User: Fold this.
Amino acid sequence: MRKIISFMHISLDGFVAGPNGEMDWIKVDEEIFDYVGKRISESDTALYGRVTYQMMENYWPTAADKPNPTKHDIEHSKWYSMVHKVVLSKTLKESDLTNTTIISDNLSDKINEIKQQEGSDILLFGSPTATHSLMQLNLIDGYWLFLNPIILGNGISLFVDIKDKINLKLLTTRQFTCGVTELNYTLDR
Assistant:
């Protein structure tokens, strides 16, 4: 069975965005882009909430075509155009989207159907609201977190309304030159 892995940047105090959704505190550089790019390239399905999906759609389809694209822009744009996208949304319509599935109801059943299909792990990119919904339904199988060396004090928390403790097992960790630390966990079931 395929697993859903939540991929997020997070502050030391557990926030994934500032109070107004700001992400200008996130540190990324070529070292992180190369490391993340390798893992992402092995995935064939990306899962997004509507807001994150629309942000991605506004940039990645044409990122490689812009003047002076970076290596990351070229590689991620190519991957984005090929990967199957699953979007949790009650407002988007599937009819005019290519290689995209919209889930607007029966979340648990539809996500479990996708998890039963052939393929690699499903990466859940950002999308705190979608992550919260999937966490409440026990549908997330792992957390791939990039811990940024900052304390925000307030914002959008990754872990909210947790009813039962979630035991995790650390798979890998990596320190990046810019001060970000990767923490890769799976559920310890």
Summary: The chain has one domain: 18-168. The helical segments are 30-41, 50-59, 71-82, 107-116, 128-136.
